[in-house]
Amino acid sequence: MHKRTSQTMRLSKFISLALAAMLASCAQPATDPTTIPVSGEMVAELTSPPIVPAPVGSRKATKLKVEMEIVEKEAEMADGVRYIYWTFGGSVPGKFIRTRIGDEVAFTLKNHPDNKLPHNIDLHAVTGPGGGATSSFVAPGHQITFSFKTLNPGLYVYHCATAPVGMHIANGMYGLILVEPEGGLPKVDREYYIMQGDFYTKGENGQPGLQPFDMAKAIDEDADYVVFNGRVGSLTGDNAITANVGETVRLFVGNGGPNLVSSFHVIGEIFDKVHIEGGSVINENVQTTLIPAGGAAIVEFKVEVPGTFILVDHSIFRAFNKGALGMLKVQGEENKTVYSGKQQEGIYHPEGGTIQKMPGEAPAARKASSVAERIEFGKQVYSKTCFACHQPDGQGIPSAFPPLANSDYLNADVKRAIKIVIEGKTGEIIVNGKKYNSVMTAQALTDEEIANVLTYVYHSWGNNKTVVTPKMVARVRSGH
Ligand code: CU
Q: Ligand 1 centroid vs 172 CA: distance in angstroms?
């Protein structure tokens, strides 16, 4: 009797537990991602930037095999500047990993036998000690495997976490892993992978040759290079990312740091949607989104007009002086309603429409009686009018204002030079083999002053010693 009762009780307890489990699984199929079942297995497609793997779409959670090889290699940081990068998969950032919520990722980390150092990996998408780092320390010529289940959808950074951690990250050991939600992200026409990083080299920015890592600068957060995808120019010119008018673009943007926070911006576009910090909150109509070091964002926008759209860290000296500049080239039909392009251009004279002729008769202008005097007076004009852009020694400012020193453009054509001083200049020019595309305003100078300043410039910094007279200026001014 006693025995039967306890058996019955055990049976009824089993049934009620089983029922409770069934009810729980029916009522809340996806709230506990640890219980998402996996079916089958597949090898993950891994891609180098700016390419991303195919979307997960509607596939079920699976056992996903990721094989990542660590490669230490020398490559170009900028034209003529070499650097020894430490990489996940041979690129900076490392290979893009694309998963979905509930996947069981079997992660194998291989450290190439030619490498010098041990490494590991901390994936921010991992729930567990060190994000995997405690289980993945691997010496050259070895490999390790660990596994994890993706519990939270979002875009996550991964990085090496071997001491000195900052140095491993500074050498390029970071990348992105995407965990898509159930059913996948909404479909878009184009997806790209972009990751910012700051670099610290013994030589200053642009100093050629193989540049070692500079620990002191890294600690001071005094970056020589701030770049997208590991090097200056990774996304410019022929390397630009592309789209066609009318398409939707999604950028998976990460920031490896190690130090700097990115103010990510696309010049001439507005982000229709931003998955803030790579998470589930979506902001709309955003101009610039902040991407923390060790963080990410997903930005989406539709391209409505053709042109080149510049990707920058809007901490703007980083973009124009340290490399954090990329390009999205959009082809297709113009839409003049959305953007007209330049409709009219003219010379703007606040004092009136006609150019005032002051051939040496202005009271303030001293007339030079010799070439030496012309040079002397010209130097004064230069120091008031020209030096801010062209710099005290005529060296100009790289990528902004062309040099006047040793200038092939200047020495080739004195009439052109006079005309530019009188009328100003816009549009692209090439000086000493380098392109410049800035604006020089028309200078309100007398013929005498223009003759003086140009004579000074032509007699300085290796130029061809042309003497410019007020008569020559007057002739150009009158269109002859
Ligand atoms: Cu490492």
A: 9
Q: What is the tens place of the pLDDT at every residue in 69-87?
A: 999 999 999 999 999 999 9
Whole-number pLDDT of residue 405: 95
- What is the distance in A from the centroid of ligand 1 to the CA of 43? 24
Q: What is this structure's pTM?
A: 0.71
CATH superfamily of 371-477: Cytochrome c-like domain (1.10.760.10)
* Residue 412 Cα to ligand 1 middle (Å): 53
Q: Can you give the chain as a three-state secondary structure string?
A: CHHHHHHHHHHHHHHHHHHHHHHHHHHCCCCCHHHCCCCCEEECCEECCCCCCCCCCCCCCCEEEEEEEEEEEEEEEECCEEEEEEEECCCCCCCEEEEECCCEEEEEEEECCCCCCCECCEECCCCCHHHHHHHCCECCCEEEEEEEECCCCEEEEEECCCCCHHHHHHCCCEEEEEEECCCCCCCCCEEEEEEEEEECECCCCCCCEECCECHHHHHHCCCCEEEECCCCCCCCHHHCEEEECCCEEEEEEEEEECCCCEEEEEECCCEEEEEHHHCCCEEEEECEEEECCCEEEEEEEECCCCEEEEEEECCCHHHHHCCCEEEEEEECCCCCCCCCCCCCCCCCCCCCCCCCCCCCCCCCCCCCCCHHHHHHHHHHHHHHHCHHHHCCCCCCECCCECCCCCCHHHHHCHHHHHHHHHHCECCCEEECCEEECCCECCCCCCHHHHHHHHHHHHCCCCCCCCCCCHHHHHHHHCCC
Q: Give the architecture (CATH level 2) of 41-331.
A: Sandwich (2.60)
Å from CA of 19 to ligand 1 middle: 49
List pLDDT tens digits, range 118-167. Answer: 999 999 999 999 999 999 999 999 999 999 999 999 999 999 999 999 99
